[in-house]
Design brief:
about 475 residues; alpha/beta; eight-stranded mixed β-barrel; two-stranded parallel ribbon; 9 helices
Amino acid sequence: MLRLMGLVVWMSKAEMSSWDYTRQDSSWGRLCVGHFQSPIDIEPKHAVQGDFEIRMLYRPLRLQDVESAGVDPDGVPRIRFKQGHPVGKVQIGSGYGDFDEYSLSAIEVHAPSEHTLREASWALEVQLWHDPMPVSRTDKLQQHTQELLEELQDSDNRFAALERSQATLRKQLNGEATPWTGKANEGAGVQQAEDWVDAAKADISEVSKLLQQDMKGVTQRAMKLQEEVKGLVTAQKRRFAGFRVALSLFILRASPVFLGEMNGTATSLVRWLSQALAANKDSDSAALELEAVIGSGKDLYSYEGSVPRPPCTPNVRWFVLGDPQPSDIEQLSILLKETQLAGRVHGNARQVQPFGPSRRLQVVQTNWKVFEAPVIVAAESMSPGRQKMILIERYCKVFVLCSVFLICTPLFFRIYNSCQEDDEDTGWDASPMSPTSPMVRPPSLEGADGRRVEMVFTEFSKHT
C-alpha cells in the first residue's frame, strides 16, 4: 500500500513538472481543464459596469520588503514580499461592512503579455498577486495568542508569589518561624512583631494589586483575540474568501522622446523590478510609488478566472488595467535580461482562453482609498458654527414634539368627554358599585359592639 501511494505521488510530481510554456497544447490539456480559465482577451465594448468597488492602498515598495526574488522553476520571474509586513492591500465590495480584503504577496513578470486588449498583445504584463486577508490574519492571531500565553505565565508567577506571602503571614500569626522567635530576637517587643506582620500584609497587598492589573490586561487581550477570531470566521464564510486577486498592468515600449508626451509612464516600475530581480541589489534605490504608476479613475476590467499555469485553479479575481503604460526601451531591455526572457520565442505567457457566454466582464474604476468605519466626530473638534447648528436642530426637534403634544392633548380630552356624554344619554352605568344593580349587594361594615352598619347609596336624579 505504501509503495502504491509513493508511486501515485511520484507520478503526480512528474506530471506537474512535465509542463512548460512551449508545449501548452500537448501537456496543459490534461492539467488545465474546466471553465473560468485565464488569460482572456479584453474587449471593452462587452464589459458592463460593475456593482462593486475596488479600493487600493499601497505604501512605497522598498527592496528591504522583498523576501526573495528570481526566476522560479516554473519559468516565471517572481518577487515575494516578507510575511507579517504588509506592503499593500486591496478591498473589494460595496461599502464598509461588505467587502473582502486582500494583501499584496508577490509580483510576477510575463513577456509577452498573457492577457490581450482588443486582440492586441503587449511587450510585458506585470501581475500583482494578493492573498486573501484571512490567510495573512492567521499569523497575526498566532502572535497575539503567544503574547496572551506569556501574560498568563507572568500571572502564574504572581500567584506563586502571593501564595508564598500568605504562607509567611500565616506562620507569623501562628508564631511559627517568625523573626522574633530566634535567640537573637528574644527581647523583641510587641511593636516589632506587629511591624513584621504589617510588612507581610503590605507584600500581599502589593502582589494582589499587580495580579489584578495582570488579570485586567489578560482579560482585555483575550476579548480582543476573541473578536479577531470572530471576524476571521465571518470573513471565511464569504463567497470570495478562498479567492486570490491579481491586478495586471500592460507595459508597452516607448521611446524616451515620446514618454513625456504620453499619459503616464511605467519606467519607474520597470526599473524597480529590475533592481529587485538583480543579483546585486542596491539598498539605496528609490522606493516605488504604485499610485503614480497605476493612476486614479482609470478603468479596470474584472472577471473570475484561474491561475494561468498548471494546475490552473479557478479561484482568481482578475483586474486588468485597460490603459497600457509606456516604459523606456532601455529599462525594459534591462528587465527582460534579468528575467531571462530576452530573445525567447515563446516567453512565459499562456495562450488566450475562450470567454464563454456564462462569464461576465465588468468594468470598475481605480480608487485609492479604503473602506473605513463611519467616523463619530467629537463635539470639541467641531467649529463653533457647526456646534450652533446642532443645537438649533435639537431645539427644533423638541419644539416639534411639544407642538404635536399640545395640539393632540385637547383633541384627546374632547373625544373622551364626548364618549362620557354618550354613556350618560343612554342611561347605562357600568359601575359595579351601583345600588340599582341587582347583582351587587351594598357592602356593610361591622362595628366593635357587633352591630352592622350598612352603606346606603343615594341616587341623584338628573333634572332637565
